[in-house]
Specification:
Radius of gyration: 17 Å
Helix content: 25-40%
Number of domains: 1
CATH class: Alpha Beta
Largest sheet: 8 strands, parallel, barrel
Strand content: 15-25%
CATH superfamily: Aldolase class I
Number of strands: 11
Number of helices: 10
CATH architecture: Alpha-Beta Barrel
Shape: globular
CATH topology: TIM Barrel
Distance between the termini: 8 Å
């Protein structure tokens, strides 16, 4: 299972994301670095995890307040890892802009997807390896501008999306993000059972090495992590043990 650190960017800083309440986000405080600037935080996370990819959320773009393309260019040019970028992509033009800024993969988030037609257009414009879908789930179901997805449960939404050429998905449970309450194992288990061929990446709430082991047992192919690394709940030594045992 791949460990994918998260960088939540807002106003030129890495912030601590908690339960999707973006107005309350503050610059990250981390045991790994005293900085909240994107590049030092990313370097510290890479040293700790030995990761091959970062998930980068451009929160300014997601809130319609500009974008972090310059920060993305800097990270792409100096980190030497793949960047998966979530930046309110809703059409092929904005997806192409991110690829030119240095994204290895463009994330289309359900939250900002206007329609299934828009998904089809983006999917047709990009190579399969350049694209990834994030199913953003809140307390009232899937968050989306798309009427065909809005408010559905994860399995119902994936039943729709599976007919739209989806082969890999991030299941991002926003109520768990930044809380350390543990991943949403019931939702992940239900998705895994309903869609065996789907490559599943978990996001939200991971707090300990035991959570990583549980997700591996479920057949999850990757996991997004941030708070657990910055708080020291999961360490480099834990990850070495996890990889050795795996």
């Amino acid at each position: 299972m791949d460990i994918i650190p998260v960088l939540d960017l807002m106003k030129g800083r890495v912030v601590h994301a908690t339960r999707g309440n973006r107005e309350s986000y503050r610059p990250i405080e981390s045991v790994l670095t005293s900085s909240s600037a994107p590049l030092p935080v990313a370097k510290a996370l890479r040293r700790e995890t030995g990761c091959e990819a970062f998930y980068v959320a451009d929160l300014d773009a997601l809130q319609g307040r500009g974008h972090q393309d310059e920060a993305i260019r800097s990270l792409a040019g100096r980190l030497g890892v793949d960047l998966w970028i979530d930046a309110a992509i809703a059409d092929p033009v904005s997806a192409d802009r991110l690829l030119k800024a240095g994204a290895a993969r463009v994330i289309v988030g359900s939250e900002t997807l206007p329609s299934l037609k828009a998904w089809r257009e983006i999917r047709e414009a990009l190579l399969p390896g350049q694209l990834l879908f994030s199913l953003d789930v809140g307390s009232d179901g899937v968050l989306s501008l798309c009427p065909a997805l809005r408010g559905l449960g994860p399995c119902a939404a994936l039943d729709v999306l599976s007919k739209e050429g989806l082969s890999q998905v991030i299941l991002l449970t926003l109520d768990q993000v930044g809380t350390g309450r543990g991943p949403d194992l019931p939702a992940l288990s239900a998705v895994r059972a309903a869609f065996p061929p789907l490559s599943l990446i978990a996001g939200g709430g991971v707090r300990s090495p035991d959570d990583l082991r549980r997700l591996t047992t479920l057949g999850v192919s990757g996991v997004l992590v941030a708070t657990s690394l910055h708080r020291g709940w999961i360490t480099a030594a834990d990850l070495r043990d996890f990889r050795r045992d795996g």
